[in-house]
Amino acid sequence: MKLLKILAATTAVAVLLAAPAYAQTRIALVVKSLGNGFFDAANKGAQEAAAELGDVEVIYTGPTAATAEAQIEVVNSLIAQQVDAIAISANDPDALVPVLQKAMERGIKVISWDSGVAPEGRQLHLNPSDIGLIGETIIKLAADYLPEGGDVAILSAASTATNQNAWIEAAKAAIPAKFPNINLVSVVYGDDDSVKSTDEAKGLIASYPDLKAIIAPTTVGVVAAAQVVTDQNLIGKVNVTGLALPSEFKQFIDNGASQAVALWNPIDLGYSAVMLANDLVKGEEAKPGATLSMGRVGEVTLDDTNSGAMAAPFQFDKSNIEEFSKIY
């Protein structure tokens, strides 16, 4: 009998030693592609949120190429790992729906952020800012430095990118009412690839000799276009603007290839995405009208599609680019 008690006690101790002190929540932050400065900055915020929450591990992951097929492979791997939540910036709004539905069927909470997934493939979506405001902002960034108007073109990311397409449609809608002297001559796609974006920028300049501005609502495309303008000695003739990371883009504000750009804080965006995913894991319900916490960033109220916006874009120019380039 004494031996049995000793064995039982030993077994109990072994079980306690093998078990973690607490069950840690694992949230996967899935980005369009790795090696992108915007998403690296978002990961900083995500890790900050994890540290603040204390019982959360953030798995930062994504494909090397910005394709839906590559993201599907990543998501399947996360399902096999039985993570608690997936927060994804999608390369395609529809192609990812089946695999994300599979994740939800397995009890994994799914949100999209930055670039959305169709409603049936996620529980909520966090826009970085209001779509209409972003669309108007990217046109205004060009129009403010074209008092007499002129030809502009848009260099986007992938043709399937949900956020890019929504912003471009909002930009087109804003032109007749608010910027009648602006003539949008073309929209091209660089697939968030530096080489392709460079080629597309060169093509725009060759095709439209009266081009006054290239608007790139993508941090990869805007750098590529500004480099082309710099290399071709077109500073002062073609202004490059759009959405840019201050740390990556400061040189082009400094040399005059760009007058101003804008962006929300990607650190805050990654932080907010993790906070919202954790809300769902802890039992909060995503439904129209629900107000959910984003920690230090504030709160978001969901609309009829279970989407919400984080904050308005912020403009960077010569007056402040130095300060913000040291932050992100």
From TrEMBL:
GO-annotated molecular function = carbohydrate binding
GO terms for biological process, alphabetical: rhamnose transmembrane transport
Q: Keywords assigned by UniProt?
A: Signal
List each copy of the Periplasmic binding protein domain by range: 27-285
GO cellular component, as recorded: outer membrane-bounded periplasmic space
Q: Does the keyword Signal apply?
A: yes
Please report which protein family the annotation says this sequence is part of.
Belongs to the bacterial solute-binding protein 2 family.
Protein name in the entry: ABC transporter substrate-binding protein
The organism encoding this protein is Devosia limi DSM 17137
